[in-house]
Design brief:
mainly alpha; two-stranded antiparallel ribbon; 7 helices; 6 strands; 61% helix
Length: 256
């Protein structure tokens, strides 16, 4: 091999699909490098002393990106967070009395979801547990259905418990993406941690956008009826479509 850095450029299909990614694994004299090539980073340069920091930020970026385009993960999280700015009063609902009260509810859900999916993401990425992708994706869709249905007809009051239980399933979904990216043997732990951290940062960004706006609107009929109830109903319908498509390998809408 010639001396000096190796430069690789990849642009296949980017003009047709902005979400397309090229997965690269490179063996340089026994040292395995891996990377993900996308529209914003279509050129990669490798050398024998490639920076672990660059690899860390690459997987961090992919973790953030995956949660942002993982609409089923986002919809599940939002379905659990929608009631966080409300408290039950008799047969009805009223706005939470303080931002701290609402924030604690959000913290419980997010913490439980994070712990749960981190556990199964790690177990699956390390190949200690493996589940069929079809089962996992169907169960993720079902989790959105149940979370949304619980908003319409509350049965489970401890939303953090739902977040933890179903978060275990979502972790397998994250792991399937990480498996496609590949975990370099020489820095497996680093890549796993950075990808998971990216997922958490992307998740926190979503919460940071949601919570202040929801808190401001919490007393209004628009939020209590339009956002919570109508939004949960819409999420339920969408997730039912996902479930049918994933569980039975069907295309519900011909244009989908």
């Amino acid at each position: 091999r010639s001396q000096g850095p190796l430069t690789i450029q990849y642009s296949l299909l980017f003009d047709l699909d902005a979400q397309h990614r090229g997965l690269l694994k490179l063996d340089l004299d026994g040292l395995i490098h891996s990377s993900v090539l996308g529209p914003q980073n279509s050129v990669m340069q490798f050398s024998d002393n490639a920076s672990l920091g660059a690899q860390f930020f690459r997987y961090l970026q992919e973790g953030v990106w995956h949660i942002w385009i993982g609409f089923d993960h986002i919809l599940f999280l939002l379905a659990l967070l929608l009631p966080a700015v409300l408290v039950r009063q008799g047969a009805g609902l009223r706005g939470a009395g303080s931002f701290r009260q609402a924030g604690l509810g959000v913290l419980g859900v997010v913490t439980a979801f994070t712990l749960a999916h981190s556990i199964t993401l790690s177990l699956a990425a390390l190949e200690l547990i493996s589940l069929p992708s079809r089962w996992v994706e169907s169960a993720i869709a079902a989790s959105v259905v149940l979370a949304a249905a619980n908003n319409l007809h509350p049965v489970v009051q401890a939303r953090w418990a739902m977040a933890f239980f179903f978060g275990l399933i979502h972790g397998f979904g994250f792991a399937s993406v990480l498996a496609e990216l590949g975990l370099p043997a020489g820095s497996l732990a680093l890549s796993l941690v950075s990808f998971n951290l990216g997922v958490e940062l992307g998740q926190l960004a979503i919460v940071a956008l949601f919570l202040p706006l929801a808190f401001v609107l919490r007393h209004t009929p628009f939020y209590q009826l339009g956002v919570l109830r109508a939004g949960s109903l819409a999420a339920l319908v969408v997730a039912l479509v996902w479930f049918v498509e994933r569980a039975f390998d069907l295309s519900v809408f011909w244009w989908a």
